[in-house]
Design a protein that fits this description.
mainly alpha; A middle domain of Talin 1; 5 helices; 82% helix; binds protoporphyrin IX containing FE
């Protein structure tokens, strides 16, 4: 297993732990001013979401060039970027998002936040199992210069990687609209 994959697993366990803590215990406080937390949240989102979108495009271009050493380099770099962009990005987005949520009464108080947390849990579990599995296979096959294996792994990694982008795009919508897609919360009795 690559170092980057190990770091991804640890990062996902920490993020899931943070979400569970905020869900089952009291909301996190604001440690800095609200704008600072929001800025850090958005820097995190840009880092991991930007990488999620730009990485596969770069890799697809490298694949079509049919220059195998170049493709192997691109695949390895993409995996390494999980360590340098995805991991810090996810941690910044989740922890600061949870601090921001306290101003809205906590993650359980708003239907849009409940949906966002559910989608983040799904995204985390799916990416650390299925997507990471195919990414590891892709990097190994590319470094071994096994082209049929590389193309097969690239296909499955692209399918599952695209799938994982859907809930994240929905979380982005939830954050901007602050309207739940499906849930309504029953207001407490007067
Ligand atoms: C479970 C994790 C998350 C929590 C608890 C959370 C919480 C929040 C909260 C409470 C706000 C409101 C801040 C404000 O408008 O003043 C916010 C804003 C925002 N969040 Fe998240 N967030 C999470 C994950 C994400 C993710 C994964 C994305 C991107 C895919 C994202 C993108 C945004 C954006 C773009 C805003 C700014 C919205 C605006 O100003 O209209 N958040 N987040």
């Amino acid at each position: 297993m690559t170092t980057s994959a190990k770091v991804s697993i640890v990062s996902n366990v920490i993020a899931l732990g943070a979400l569970a803590m905020a869900w089952f215990t009291a909301p996190l406080p604001l440690y800095f001013s609200y704008p600072v937390h929001k800025l850090l949240h958005l820097v995190g989102v840009m880092m991991f979401f930007g990488n999620l979108v730009a990485g596969p495009v770069w890799l697809a271009v490298a694949l079509f060039e049919k220059d195998r050493p170049h493709f192997a380099f691109a695949a390895k770099t993409l995996a390494d970027l999980d360590m340098y962009l995805t991991t810090p990005g996810v941690q910044l987005a989740v922890w600061n998002g949870l601090c921001l949520a306290s101003v809205f009464g906590g993650v359980r108080a708003q239907p849009w936040l409940v949906e966002a947390v559910a989608m983040m849990v799904f995204t985390s579990l799916f990416s650390v199992t299925v997507v990471l599995h195919w990414q590891e296979k892709l990097v190994a096959a590319a470094l071994e210069n096994d082209w049929p294996k590389t193309k097969r792994a690239m296909t499955w990694w692209s399918v599952f990687g695209t799938l994982v982008g859907v809930p994240l795009a929905l979380v982005m919508y939830l954050m901007v609209s602050k309207q739940a897609l499906w849930l309504t919360l029953t207001p407490p009795p007067p």
